[in-house]
Design brief:
It contains seven helices and no strands. By secondary structure, it is an all-alpha fold. It has one domain (about 5-130): Orthogonal Bundle (N-utilizing Substance Protein B Homolog, Chain A), CATH 1.10.940. About 40% of the residues are buried.
């Protein structure tokens, strides 16, 4: 598995934990990395993704809500919601990764960790959001 793929997987797990527990992101990061050994590049990118997503969460959730027809963000499955949040942050704020790569990675996460329909759902929402970011 590539470093950025591992970092996205870790970021998803961290965001999921923050969403479930409402714990402080720095506390969750500290506990998460204490229990795992990872490449420093994986840790750095995962931390960038999680801290960036959390710091822009209100804006990201508004964007997701406006681009997900008939879905209130709080009603979305937690895994799907956090994959979409993570990818939305990446689309809007990380310039060196093409949006299509971000969406492909998000769909892969959804297929691995979500329900049978998660990949299609995540892809549909992110395709709409992609128009706001880079190409």
């Amino acid at each position: 598995m590539r470093k950025r793929t591992k970092a996205r997987e870790s970021a998803l797990q961290i965001l999921y934990q923050v969403d479930i527990t409402n714990d402080n992101i720095n506390l969750v990061l500290e506990q998460y990395w204490k229990e795992r050994k990872r490449n420093p590049e994986v840790i750095e990118f995962a931390n960038q993704l999680t801290k960036g997503t959390i710091s822009h969460l209100t804006e990201i959730d508004k964007i997701i809500s406006s681009h997900s027809e008939n879905w209130n963000i709080e009603r979305m499955p937690i895994i799907d919601r956090n994959i979409i949040r993570l990818a939305t942050y990446e689309i809007l704020y990380i310039d060196d990764i093409p949006s299509k790569v971000t969406i492909d990675e998000a769909v892969d996460l959804a297929n691995r960790f979500g329900s049978i329909n998660s990949g299609k759902f995540v892809n549909g929402v992110l395709d709409k959001i992609m128009t706001l970011g880079k190409n």
